[in-house]
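User: Now give one protein:

AI:
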Amino acid sequence: MSEARSVPEASTTAHDLTAFQQNILTILAEEPMYGLAVKRELEAYYGSEVNHGRLYPNLDDLVDDGFIEKSELDKRTNQYALTDAGHDVVLGQLEWVLDRFVTDEGRAAEVRALIEE
């Protein structure tokens, strides 16, 4: 298994995902990507190398959980795309964070400024 999960469950919910897995979903929210493109995006975010042994098991777990789908681009390259369930996870996480962060008009203005960039 990948990341911190140790006991398999019947079905995974968004609350069971690690931050690393949530970051993968966020990256795929932009557009479908092949694995190495996801890896580069994660490395840019973390500022350090992301090991293949960490990335691909997490991608496989997210496929198994129904949050992303995997398709074959060619014989050696898979493409990953966010599913509707994955979209709901990303949106739910954003809503949860914003509900806690936007506590006054000043913070609301900060968020609006980010969106307008």
Notes: The helical segments are 19-30, 35-46, 52-64, 84-101, 105-116. Residues 84-101 form the longest helix (18 residues).
